[in-house]
Amino acid sequence: MESEQHSQHLERVPSGISGLDAILQGGFLKGGVYIVQGVPGTGKTVLANHICFNHVARGGRAAYLTLLAESHARMLQHLRPMAFFDDTAIPDRLYYASAYSTLEEQGLRGLLDLIRHEIRGQTASLLVLDGFVVAGLTAPSEREFKKFVYEVQIHANVMNCTVLLLTSNEPGPVRAEHTIVDGVIELDDRLFDHRTERGLQIRKHRGSGFLRGVHPFRITTTGIVAFPRIEVAFASPSRRDLPPRDRVSTGVASLDALIGGGLIDATTSVVMGPTGIGKTTFGLQFLARSRQEEPGLLFGFYETPERLKAKAEALGLDVAGLEASGTVEIVWQPQGENVLDELGHRLLSAVRRRGVRRLFLDGLGGLIESAVHPGRISRFLSVLSNELRALGATTVYSVETRDIVGPTVQVPIDGISSLVEGMMVLRYVEAQGRTHRVLSITKIRDSAFAPELQAFSITSGGWEIIGPFQGYEAVLSGSAHMPPPPPEGR
Amino acid sequence: MKTILLVEDEFGIAGVLTVLLEDAGYRVLSAGNGREGLEQLAANRPNVVVTDYMMPLMDGAAMAQAIRADPAFQDIPIIMMTSVREDIVRQHFAGYTAYMRKPFQTEALLDLIARIAES
Q: Residue B11: closest CA among chain A residues belongs to which residue?
């Protein structure tokens, strides 16, 4: 039984592309044939070359055949600056040749013979045919083309050579050749308002599971980097979520006293309020309690690490020293055209790398603004928070609310309360001719907390809870007023 | 009129070089790989062989070795034009007359061919 199972095991050929093997759940099938399709400029050639160079770096051999694609010299010139490129692999381990003349003169039969010859001659375990669409255009009939693809598959399987067929077909309906091959990968580069985002989708992966849906990817100086969509990649947290145990100090002793000793270990809390009210100060105090055995991470979008350290120093918090000792890491992600899933993976990777136990994400708006599909945000955050809990991180998100004062609190995410265990709302309140800072603890799941509104101030030492903000009505509207006196005679 | 044997699998490059060489007054024989190159060589002795390295069926190094091994053709100058680094080419075949790294300026290749063809 065991040997039968072993014989049925399908051997994989990893792409070596960051993120793609997770999407493919291990890589391509050895001896399988895959169509990689996408309109010109979507990154097919870079992807295929990156896979080839990774393959030969692991000891494999590859052949790259072209049909009316850009010249090899030009293609290699474009690839040369990328980190994966290795001049020494060419031609002994990675061989480039044009198959166009053969196709022109001898048709699909000649092309098939050439593919077979190059697999054998180069002892290639990976072969790319770039410009596969041209073979389709040359075919005398659809039946002949299907037969050609079928024969390529037979040879690939017998010769244990994985084959990638690159075609510039428009994405769309299933084509005849799709029914024969082992897999179809579709690349695109979509426009969202004024920005574009590259996406990769596995349409078919015979004999294997795969992560479904569109996954963003980038072409960087290191080559292709794919970011499996967080919602599907971490649909089940990577570790079992342990029941929360300890309390984790917020860094503000007077606040800890109001919430039963601190935040609950490995939970997620949100502190929301308008600009300048003290969200980042709170986060820095939370982070300053990091220790070697309780490492901290500040993942921020707005203020640079230098400004944050200077701000902390002004509050008497040695965040710079904690960073220098490796107890705290500051990851600054400047606002630009970020990719939501890239940010998610970067955050989780930073947490995993150092076993982070205290995480301050400043602020959630940076994630929200990176989403080309804002409708994803709630589910994205839910899955991200689950994973952070499973990793044992006690997380504080800061969220900026829109209005500095006013009758409503505009929260940029729907249903945020259901995503977090703790929630604190900060408000500027006008009363008796001056502005007060007021804190409302609206949620600490499974824990008692002081329900009264609390006045707080920011001193040279940071946050300080002054005490209950009493004697006023409509405080959270921003314009507090004294309640009317009770009617006389009662 | 001098004859150039141009061995190049990429038809776009082969086409442009053929036109430019013919404009420069050469007779051009074309081949798409090393095997075809040797067939052309046997039928029409060229003055210079200009060859790519990586081609299907037979590469430029294997073809050049066969040319050097044949007493009838071993003195024909061979220009190796390729994306492959020269130190790697030399590990396989060091008997070429000149090397030109792709991509190149066509004028540089034409000058090189002219110098070698006239020498």
A: A101
Q: pLDDT digit string (tens) for A421-479?
A: 899 999 998 887 888 999 999 877 777 777 789 999 999 999 999 999 887 776 666 66
Q: From CA A77, how far away is CA A54, in angstroms rounded?
A: 18
Number of neighbours of residue A106 by Cβ within 10 angstroms: 13
> Sign of the C-alpha dihedral, residues A264, A268, A273, A278?
positive
Is the distance from CB of A85 to CB of A79 less than 8 angstroms? yes
CA nearest A232: which of A384, A350, A366?
Answer: A384
Contact A71 B12 (CB under 8 A): yes
Distance from CA of B24 to the nearest CA of A (A): 24
Question: Hey, which residues does A270 pair with through a beta bridge?
Answer: A397, A423
Residue-wise DSSP of A58-81: TT--EEEEESS-S-HHHHHHHHTT
Structure tokens at A429: 């309140």
For residue range A212-253, list pLDDT tens digits in order. 999 999 999 999 999 999 999 999 988 877 776 789 999 999
* Cβ-contact A135, A104 below 8 angstroms: no
Which tokens sit at A157?
A: 């399987």
Residue A6 pLDDT > 50: no
Task: Name which of A451, A413, A402, A133 is nearest A273 in CA terms.
Answer: A402
Q: Give the H/E segment covering residue B101.
A: strand B98-101
Q: How far is A30 from chain B (nearest CA, A)?
A: 24
Backbone angles phi, psi at A445, to 5 degrees: -60, 140
What CA–CA distance (Å, rounded) separates A269 from A248? 12
Identify any residues that bridge with A36 across adjacent strands, giving them in sequence order: A166, A185
Q: Which residues of A touch B56 (CB under 8 A)?
A: 65, 97-99, 102, 114, 117-118
Residue A408's contacts (CB-CB under 8 Å, 6 or more residues apart) are: none
Q: Is A64 on the interface with B (CB under 8 A)?
A: no
Q: Quick one: closest CA in B to A113, which residue?
A: B57
- Chain B residues closer than 8 Å to A98 by CB: 9-11, 32, 55-56
| B35 vs A contacts (CB less than 8 Å) | none
Tell me if A92 and B32 make a contact (CB, 8 A cut-off): no
Q: What is the pLDDT of residues A306-337, one digit of tens each?
A: 999 999 999 999 999 999 999 999 999 998 88
Which pTM does this prediction carry? 0.90
Name residues whose C-beta falls within 8 Å of residue A185's C-beta, 6 or more positions apart in sequence: A34, A35, A36, A37, A200, A201, A202, A203
> Which of B83, B100, B109 to mutate against chain A (most A CBs within 10 Å)?
B83
Residue of B6, B7, B8, B9 to mutate when probing chain A, most A C-beta within 10 A: B9
Beta bridge pairs of residue A183? A34, A205
Q: What is the mean pLDDT of residues A41-64?
A: 97
Residue of A nearest to B88 (CA): A88
A331 burial (CB, 10 Å; 0-12 / 13-18 / 19+) is middle
- What pLDDT does residue A480 have? 65
Non-local (6+) Cβ contacts of A141 within 8 A are none
How are beta strands A434-444 and A454-459 bridged, if at all?
Answer: antiparallel
Torsion of CA A368, A370, A374, A379, to 10 degrees: -70
Residue B55: its chain A contacts at CB < 8 A?
A: 97-98
- Give ipTM to 2 decimals: 0.94
